[in-house]
Amino acid sequence: MIYKVVLRQSEEGFSVSVPGLPGCWSQGATELEALENVRDAIQEYLSVVAEQVRGGEAPIPFPAPATGSRACASRHSAGGPSVHECCIHMLRLRLSLS
Question: What are the C-alpha distances in Å from 80 to residues 49, 70, 71, 85, 87?
Fold first, then answer.
């Protein structure tokens, strides 16, 4: 499938979101890195939803992207995992799959 993305320049590089997949976004130091990272995020997002559907569960609504973005950014700035890794982790926790 092809998904439209929104790419924005930020102070730390580029952020990219997927409007068709609420809460699915990533970032990178360059445009290319951000787009590669969001490709991985889309695959992970769809994998988690597919797992949940196979298990007979209805997909759980996601938090507003801005909320997740702030949480990920604050964890990353504190020397934790990358924003991309943090958001994948938060998505898995939100869907109770980790």
Answer: 26, 14, 12, 9, 12
Which residue has tokens 């890195």?
A: 33
Q: What is the pLDDT of residues 12-70, one digit of tens each?
A: 899 999 999 988 999 999 999 999 999 999 999 999 888 888 876 655 554 444 444 44
**Minimal CA–CA distance to 65: which of 13, 28, 21, 31?**
21
Strand partners, 13: 10
What spatial distance separates the first Cα and last Cα of the chain, rounded to whole Å? Answer: 26
Token code pair at residue 36? 């590669």
pLDDT of the residue at 96: 47
Decide if 97 contacts 86 (C-beta within 8 A).
Answer: no
